[in-house]
Amino acid sequence: MAELLQAASDLMAERGYDATTMAEIAARAGAKVGSLYRFFPNKEAIAETLLQQQMAVLHDEYEALAGRASTLLPEELADILIDLMVTRYPRVKSLPALMQARTDSVEIRNVSRAQAIQGISAALRVCAPALDEVVAKDIAAVVLNNMKVMLGMTLKEAPTTPGAPDELRRMNRLYLCARLDPWR
């Protein structure tokens, strides 16, 4: 089943949800299409399973980060956060395609963003315990946007130059140090 889901995720990331067929998923996984139907009655069931798995990956990443944020300096936390989307991308690369295919995509996207902001702000507040919750969410929103830009640069979907990712890392470090140090 894991191989079928991985094949589905890869195909949906490459081709999009609508262009991916059950037969292609089975072929990519090296399975017979009947095996795929034994686990999933249709493509929508696969998409729902993938969406739940990938949202859980994101949740787990933020929980783990918050669990260790008390041992991190603001600049260390900044580096981890700025690269978090890039490092987890292979595990959630079909998430945009999965969201786009749903009739409730706006709601799912809003839940995903809220989860990210909550996860980042939790890590910020562990790193800087006196940080106000509202301020933490504002900072988290800025950091989340920086994380998206870093992913875009890495995937060559955003304007970039060879040194731009390092400059974004520096900017993120300076920003988090300036914002978190007074609350530590």
UniProtKB/TrEMBL annotation:
The keyword DNA-binding applies. The keyword Transcription applies. It comes from the Bacteria. Pfam families: TetR_N. Keywords: DNA-binding, Transcription, Transcription regulation. InterPro entries: Homeodomain-like_sf, HTH-type_TetR-like_transc_reg, HTH_TetR. Residues 1-58 form the HTH tetR-type domain. Residues 21-40 bind DNA. This is HTH tetR-type domain-containing protein.
